[in-house]
Each structure stands twice: as C-alpha cells, then as structure tokens.
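User: Can you predict the 3D structure for this chain?
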Amino acid sequence: MKKTLVIGSAVCDVVIPVDHLPSRSEDINLYHQELSLGGCAWNVCDCLRLFAVPFVPFLPVGSGIYGKFVEEGLTKRGIRSFCPPSEGENGCCYCLVEPDGERTFLCYHGAEYHFQEEWFALFEKSPEAEKTDSVYVCGLEIEEKSGETILAFLERHRDYRVFFAPSARICDIPRDRMRRMLDLSPVLHLNEEEALRFTGCQSLEEAGRGLSERTGNVVLVTCGARGCLIFDPSDGCITRIDPYPAAQTGDTIGAGDSHIGSVIALLQKGYGIKEAVRGADYIASAVVSKKGAGLTDAQFREAVRKIE
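Assistant: Here is the predicted structure, written as structure tokens:
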C-alpha cells in the first residue's frame, strides 16, 4: 500500500463550552476549557494512523507555548513531521461549543500555515515521493499566501490522487487558486452549506452535479443528520449514504476531518467509494458522540467493529 501525503496544519485546540455565543459588549463567565491536539491535517493524519494506513505528515510546527504543545502531542503518538521546525510562533484555534454541540472557531494562524518551497523540493528528492500516490490538502492552506507553493507542487505531480476539503472558508480562497485546484480533478469533500454557497445553486443536486462535472471526479457532500451524497461523474448517479446516528452529542469538532480522513483510509485499503463513505459515517458519528476532535485507540476499535 502506498502512502498519502497530508499537507496542512496541526494546532492546539482550545475548547471552550459556552451557554450561547456572545453578543457585542456582553460579558460571559467561562467555567471550563480544555486543550487538545487538532487542526484539519492532523485530524486526517490521526484517522490514517488509526486505520494503519501509511502516510507522510507534512505539518509545519512553530515555536511558543502552542508549538510546544503540538510537538509534544505528535511525539506522544510517534509522529514526526516531514517539515523541519518552522520559525515563528505556532497558532491555535479557539473552539466555542454550544450546548447542542455546534462549534464556532476563532482561528489564530501562525507558522503552521507557512509552507516553504524547499520543503517540497526535499520531499521530491526523498524516497517518500516514490512511495506516495495520494495527497490530502485543506482549503485553509490554499487560502494562505503559501497556497501558491502548495499548488505548484501539486501541479508538478498530477499522477497523485488529490483529496481536497475546501472548508467553511471556501468562498475566501482566491478564485484563481480555486480554478487551479479544481483543474487537478480532486476528490472534493465539503458540506451542504459550502456547496450551495460556493456554486450559488438553489438545490444541492444541481450544486453537486456541477462540481462533479467541473472536476471530472467524485464529489462528496456531507449533510449532517441526512447522511452524505456521492456525486459520481462516471455514470451521473447520485447516491445517498444514510447516516449512522450518534449515540449522544458531544460536539462537532473534527467531524468533517474524521470523515474525509476515514474515506481516504478505506479507499487506500481497497474499499469502494460507497463502502468507504459508509465506514466514514461510523467514524464521524463516534467523533460527534464525544467532546473534541479525534478518537482514542480504544474508541476507534469500538467504532471500527461496526464497519467490519
């Protein structure tokens, strides 16, 4: 099995439960906060790790208290980033979690979003390049200035299968970069609101079909409690995979990342797209059932039994 190159960020998530989102000039007392290892790319890496699928973590790690937290978290899990230590302070993500589990992010981007051309050149000269056949990238990294560097790398390696999750900031990514990314024919992973907002379509079916025709590849649109839609341009079919209901609601942090991470892992293990999405629904459901992103090894083993 070849490796997946995971390009993106690892950050410290500062998870803060709130009764409601603050309004302007309001004072809110907080009674609890928790620090956890997060970031879209790290969450995908962790899914691949749990599924025992080989990957190359391409995660810049900066300095400061959050950089130290991230470095210690990666080391604890036996993960070493391909990127050398990065200059500058590592950022963090403040995760405000409401009683129903919905999350709102306040993101401070630091060194973890700054990619250097020489890092990609080192990768291309390394044995890892020949062992790799797929790439994950998040839209947050493409939006940043060094997104140009990432795109140039991907355009040099059109033989790699690209998985692209544009994120809630899909409409903030410069249009030319989105055009170049879609020209790479990625497997596109986004949620219902993102698909409608980006395309301007009135119906999800129209939005998904349009995106699938544009990329010439599968588009996956997650719809929360209504499951996931698969748009496949090879036959023009739309397949709905019913959701696996969460046992309880913890919060939605990392749910989308765990979903695409699991899809990648299961496809790499030889599953078909429908089976991969169905399995990813189980894992995402388990993530939503607890607080914070990701699963412990024990929680993953419990969830994966349902896939098997």
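Residues 39 and 77 are 15 Å apart (CA to CA). The radius of gyration is 18 Å.
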